[in-house]
Amino acid sequence: MNITKELKDAMAYLRLTGIIPTLPERISYANSKKLTIIEFLEMIFYDELEKRQAKLLNIKMKKAGVDANIGAYDWDTATVYDRELVKNLFSLNFIQNHSSVLTFGPAGVGYDKYFVM
């Protein structure tokens, strides 16, 4: 299904651009599953919400200087720490919970020796 230029322009004007890339797929899915209008709207607005939340999280992480790429983290250190706790911190759930994280260690060990948020 093709989306008209007018509809794309209206969604862009309303800043609903997260919906545009998935709209044809979502329309096909809604038709095949015989979704109600309300179910369809919930689905496409959730797409927009997810896009906005991901964008906001990325902005916050860049601003804070956080690299949440758990694959890049060096797990093989001589330092003793709770690895599950660090993995949980990498999930960044504390941001959604509006919580703070404070990490500390012995004086003189330096920033690069500990995971700091």
Describe this structure in words.
- This protein is mostly helical and 117 residues long.
- The protein folds into two domains: 1-65; 66-117, no CATH class.
- The chain has five helices and no strands.
- It has helices at 5-13, 23-33, 37-64, 83-90, 93-96.
- Helix 2 (23-33) runs antiparallel to helix 3.
- It is elongated and about 60 Å long.
- The termini are far apart.
- 2% of the residues are buried.
- The mean pLDDT is 81.
Descriptive terms for the model:
117 residues, mainly alpha, 2 domains, 5 helices, elongated
In brief:
The protein folds into two domains: 1-65; 66-117, no CATH class. Helix 2 (23-33) packs antiparallel against helix 3.
Percentage of β-strand residues: under 5%
Number of contiguous helices: 5
Can you give the mean pLDDT?
81
Overall helicity: 40-55%
User: What's the number of extended β-strand segments?
Assistant: 0
Give the CA-based shape.
elongated
N-to-C span: 46 Å
List unreliable stretches of 5+ residues: none
Radius of gyration: 21 Å
Sheet with the most strands?
A: none
What does the secondary structure layout of this molecule look like, with pairings?
Blueprint: H1 5-13, H2 23-33, H3 37-64, H4 83-90, H5 93-96
Helix pairs in contact: 2-3
